[in-house]
């Protein structure tokens, strides 16, 4: 057969008809195109049904299922599809299963697929066809967090106490913090988190530093960026869901908290704040950059002060 398919492939499914002789005329119908990836070979033979898919940019295929399907039908189509993709020299196979098609998960796993990642509306499973080492990239290994230093003209720092978490109940006043959303810039996340927790509008200044911690949430690593922001408003309207209290605290009082001096990262935060107040430290500010790879601008974080002086 064409496309590298053997007659043995047709035996994978009792529902697939045997190939028709070449001299039989093909029937013409005005009905909608057949579903589930039916293919018709150029010679007139009816090829094996396969699952609808698109090619990815790395030699693999992506199956994006949307319609309900019986698990036995799915198993037959999946085996046929894998055989054809193997003949075509494909590598990785991705199946995006909406939560409504949860009945197909067990079938895919039994055929050799494994979990890659999950989102609220779907589960992604993957399969590696070649016998060589798998090069499918793993699921995201890090989440990204921000901590915001907001200093006003009185050298007061914006601080909060949380209703839950490891800092709850110990009397520690901490910086507003949060997690960067997918597709969100660091500076946007810092501004948003401060606004959500305290009601204060801010302007982003720069990233003062960052740290990496491991074995955090479900074994993932965390990149935490310490950001400095300039307040554009002063009246606090704290978030009731997560924040117990919020206030402007004199920087000296914030720095003197006993809990701060038990943790070296917090000591460095104090030192960075002092260096900024004394204007002897320059962090990394976002600079919009364009690329032919994407239409939208993205941001490069750099020491713009020293860069501009050198140019």
Automatic annotation (TrEMBL):
<dbReference type="Pfam" id="PF18290">
    <property type="entry name" value="Nudix_hydro"/>
</dbReference>
<comment type="similarity">
    <text>Belongs to the Nudix hydrolase family.</text>
</comment>
<dbReference type="InterPro" id="IPR003293">
    <property type="entry name" value="Nudix_hydrolase6-like"/>
</dbReference>
<protein>
    <recommendedName>
        <fullName>Nudix hydrolase domain-containing protein</fullName>
    </recommendedName>
</protein>
<dbReference type="InterPro" id="IPR000086">
    <property type="entry name" value="NUDIX_hydrolase_dom"/>
</dbReference>
<dbReference type="GO" id="GO:0047631">
    <property type="term" value="F:ADP-ribose diphosphatase activity"/>
</dbReference>
<keyword id="KW-0479">Metal-binding</keyword>
<dbReference type="InterPro" id="IPR020084">
    <property type="entry name" value="NUDIX_hydrolase_CS"/>
</dbReference>
<dbReference type="InterPro" id="IPR015797">
    <property type="entry name" value="NUDIX_hydrolase-like_dom_sf"/>
</dbReference>
<dbReference type="GO" id="GO:0046872">
    <property type="term" value="F:metal ion binding"/>
</dbReference>
<dbReference type="GO" id="GO:0035529">
    <property type="term" value="F:NADH pyrophosphatase activity"/>
</dbReference>
<feature type="domain" description="Nudix hydrolase">
    <location>
        <begin position="141"/>
        <end position="273"/>
    </location>
</feature>
<dbReference type="GO" id="GO:0051287">
    <property type="term" value="F:NAD binding"/>
</dbReference>
<keyword id="KW-0378">Hydrolase</keyword>
<dbReference type="InterPro" id="IPR040618">
    <property type="entry name" value="Pre-Nudix"/>
</dbReference>
<dbReference type="Pfam" id="PF00293">
    <property type="entry name" value="NUDIX"/>
</dbReference>
């Amino acid at each position: 057969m064409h496309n590298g398919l053997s007659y043995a492939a047709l035996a994978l499914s009792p529902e697939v008809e045997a190939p028709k002789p070449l001299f039989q005329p093909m029937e013409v119908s005005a009905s909608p195109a057949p579903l589930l990836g039916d293919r018709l070979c150029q010679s007139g033979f009816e090829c094996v049904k396969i699952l609808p898919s698109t090619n990815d940019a790395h030699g693999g295929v992506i199956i994006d299922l949307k319609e309900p399907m019986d698990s036995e039908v799915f198993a037959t189509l999946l085996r046929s599809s894998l055989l054809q993709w193997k003949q075509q020299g494909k590598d990785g196979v991705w199946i995006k299963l909406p939560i409504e098609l949860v009945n197909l998960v067990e079938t895919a796993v039994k055929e050799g697929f494994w979990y890659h990642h999950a989102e609220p509306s779907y589960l992604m499973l993957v399969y590696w066809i070649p016998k060589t080492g798998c090069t499918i990239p793993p699921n995201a290994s890090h989440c990204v967090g921000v901590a915001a230093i907001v200093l006003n003209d009185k050298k007061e720092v914006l601080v909060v106490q949380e209703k839950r978490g490891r800092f709850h109940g110990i009397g520690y006043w901490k910086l507003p913090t949060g997690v960067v959303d997918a597709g969100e810039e660091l500076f946007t996340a810092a501004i948003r988190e401060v606004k959500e927790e305290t009601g204060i509008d801010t302007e982003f200044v720069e990233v003062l530093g960052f740290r990496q911690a491991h074995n955090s949430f479900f074994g993932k690593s965390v990149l935490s960026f310490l950001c400095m922001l300039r307040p554009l408003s002063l009246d606090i309207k704290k978030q009731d869901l997560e924040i117990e209290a919020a206030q402007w605290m004199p920087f000296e009082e914030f720095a003197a908290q006993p809990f701060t001096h038990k943790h070296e990262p917090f000591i460095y935060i104090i030192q960075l704040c002092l260096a900024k107040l004394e204007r002897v430290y320059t962090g990394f500010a976002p600079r919009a950059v364009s690329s032919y790879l994407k239409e939208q601008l993205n941001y490069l974080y750099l020491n713009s002060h020293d860069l501009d002086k050198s140019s």
